[in-house]
Amino acid sequence: MMNCIIVEDQPPAQRILKKYIEDIGTLTLKATFTDALQTMEFLKTQEVDLMFLDIHLPKISGIDFLKTIPNAPPVILTTAFPDYALESYEFSVVDYLLKPFSFQRFVKAVAKVPVKNNKPSSSQPIEAKQEHRKELFIKSGYELVKVLVDDILYIKSEGDYTEIYLPEKKHLSSESLRYWEESLDQGQFFRVHKSYMINATKIEKISGSQVYLKGKKVVPIGRTYKDDFLAKIN
Question: What is the per-residue pLDDT across 47-61, written as a single tens digit (0 to 9) for each?
Answer without folding.
Answer: 999 999 998 888 888
